[in-house]
Amino acid sequence: MEFEFFKMHGAGNDFLVVPDPDAVFPVGDDAGANPGSPARDELVRRLCAPHSGLVCEGLILMRRRGAPAGSAFQMLFFNPDGSRASMCGNGARCAALCALREGWTGASGSFASDAGPVPFEILSGDRSSRTATVRIGMKDVSGVESCGPLSPEDSRSPCPPDFEPDGTWLVDTGVPHAVRFVDDLRSVDVAACGAFVRFHSRFPEGANADFVQIIGPGEIALRTYERGVEAETPACGTGVTAAAVVAAALGKCRPSVAVHVAFGDVLTVDCASCGMDGAHGIFLAGPASFVCRGTLETDWFAA
Fold first, then answer.
1. Can you give the residue ranges of every domain in the chain?
2. Distance in angstroms (rounded) separating the CA atoms of residues 242 and 168
3. What interhelical angle do 89-102 and 237-249 show, nearest 10?
4. pLDDT tens digit sequence for 26-42
5. Into which CATH architecture does domain 145-280 fall?
6. Which residues have a catalytic role annotated?
7. How many angstroms separate the first and last alpha carbons of the chain?
8. For the segment 196-228, what is each residue's pLDDT rounded down to a tens digit?
C-alpha cells in the first residue's frame, strides 16, 4: 500500500506524519485499540527504526473517517517501539500544521486524540509555510503527586551512583511524567537516571522522566528521557507541560513559563489555574516544521 508522508519535527522531536483520511493504514488492531498497553505494532517499529527504517521518534496517523463530531480529524500516535501513546504535544502541533497544509482545516480548530479534544491555533505561518508557531490546548491535570522515595532495588534499570531517592513528582499531561528538579541540568546523566526512573516499579506502566532546572521566576530548562523512545529526546511537549505545571504548583515559578529544551528552542506553557490539586486551561505553544515529503510503500517494511 502507498501513502504520502511528511517528515516533521517540533523543537527537534521528529515524526513521520501520514495523512490517512479513510483510516486504511495497516496498523495492528491490538496496538491501535488500547493506548498504553504492552501491545507493539511491528510495522510501526520497522518504519521508525534507524538504519533500516525512516528514523524518527514516532508515527502520527491523521484520520478523518471515524473522527468524533466537531473534530477536523483523529490523531493516532505511535512510539518508535510500536506502542501507542495517548498524546504527544510536539506531534500534535505538527499534526495541526499538516492539516492546515492539506486543507483539512483553517488556522484554528480542534482535532481528536486518545487524550481528548485538542484545540489549536496557528499563531504564525500559513498553508505554504515550512515552519509555524502553533498553540495547542492540553488536557487538564488532575493533581501533582509526590512519589516518595524511589528505592534503588525496585527498578529494572540500575540505580545510578549518588541518585537521590526523594524529590520525584508524578503528573499526567496525556501520558505520565515523573518530574525531578536539579541544580545543574548539564551534569545529569539523563540516560542512566532516566532509565532508572522510567522502569521503576513505582510506575507500573512506565513514565517519562523529566529533569528540570529553575532559571528564573517564569523560566526553566528541561531534559527528558522518553518512554517508548527509551532515550533522551531533543524535546517532549507533554514533558514541557508537566515540568511547567509541577514547577508552578510547587511555587518554584509562575505561569506563563518559558521552557528551554535540549534542542535549543523555547516553548511556552500557560495555565488558567495551577496548584497541587491540578491545573486547568493549559496551553502549549512552540514551533512545528516540515522537513520533507515522500511516498511510503508499506510492503517494503513487511515482516
1. 2-138+288-301, 145-280
2. 12
3. 130
4. 997 555 555 556 668 99
5. Roll (3.10)
6. 88, 236
7. 14
8. 999 999 999 999 999 999 999 999 999 999 999
